[in-house]
Amino acid sequence: MAAAMRMSFYICNVAPSPWDSVKSKNVDEYNSWTLFRYSSIKIPYIDSSLCQNLYFDKTRDLHGHVVNLGVFVQSSTLPFDDMKVGLDRFGGVNGEIAKEIWTKLNANASVKFYKTMGTFDAKGNPVGFYEDLRLHRIDYAMNMIFFRYFWKLQTYPHESSAICIISYKDRSTIGSLRELLSTITSTFWIIVIIGSVILNIALKFLLNENISSSCLELLRMIISVSSLKEPQQYTRRFFFAYIIVLTMMTNFYFQSSLSSISIAPSSKPVIDSEESLLKSDLIIYGRASMRSFLNLSDPKHKERYVNEEFPKCAKRLLQGQRVACISGCISSRYNIYEGGRVHISEEKRHTFMSFAVRDNWPLYFRVNQILRRMSEGGLIVLFRRREMRLFKRPPRFRKSIKRITMRDANFAFYVWNVGVVVSSCVFMCEIFLAKIKTKISVAF
């Protein structure tokens, strides 16, 4: 009956040897499709055994099939070496992953270069390789992207990442007495007052003097002037020497701390959170795709955001410009390092990394399977560790030491002048108290 009806069965592209090629058509310069036929005349009856040879993985070996790739070359994370051949010309983790996938599938690559990363314009239209992915001009973008919900199709999230904010550190010196006093906490003043009262009372009993005389004696110890009176008993002399050493050590610690404040400028990060970034008046530089990670609902904040690649923003920071950069934490540590002038914030907005592909791509599930196995097997971690050797390192410590000049030592002369003034006041008070004591003794 099957032979009388002359039924024919058809399948596209790949089929076992009993199937006959019927028609072929070139879709473009690299890709084509072929229609195969199996006539019912060749078999006495039709059953499920006819299709048993068709259940196999047609993507296990692509036999040189050309895959259209898109790439945005970056000197840090996706470098390009034209001295090499094929996919070996692309380096970094992105290049290593692409080379492993397409070597495994035995595929050839047709690469299209882009000037920027794929993004979306103000009207929501795709730009760059996103536009070509939408129009099926390319199949796969080699640059890994943050896993986002607005793109139709993405690969398996093979790696975790986060967003970091990079800013210039605020380095300022003490320029006035008010700024100096603001650096000293209230706890310090409380400890000084309590300690002074205790030492004053101790000197009163050791020297058998009144409160005013013991207070002047304590001031003489603080400003390192010789004492007017000493205890007569050995035990009291021991405690008296102990108080002298204690005041000298406290005085030395306090003066050295003041000198360090003047010589070593204070360094603290300008930006360490999204809230502090929005409250600041800094211009924000970052890719257009990074804009959605910030809450820029205020029109003033939108005007502050400038589309620029992170390596250019890093150069601005190293030149001393007061700007803020937003980038992936992995990319940021390639172009700059946490040092004396630049601060990299803690990881914000944790997310995952994936690759953007076109929709209805026949190789999507096969590529996903390979990516998942590479991630679970630790191969991507190995690629990342190799890449860490290219991270920027801080310069040697000896090169970063700042030499102390006479201008930096001015604070020591200021302290000396203050000591002269205080000692003069103490000397005048002693003369005044001595005259009063003499008059009182003569009167009685």
UniProtKB/TrEMBL annotation:
It comes from the Eukaryota. InterPro entries: Insect_Ionotropic_Sensory_Rcpt. GO terms for cellular component: plasma membrane. Signal peptide: none annotated. Its main location: membrane. The chain crosses the membrane at residues 180-203, 234-254, 411-434. Keywords: Cell membrane, Glycoprotein, Membrane, Receptor, Transmembrane, Transmembrane helix. It is a multi-pass membrane protein. It is found in: Cell membrane. This is Uncharacterized protein. It comes from Nasonia vitripennis (Parasitic wasp).
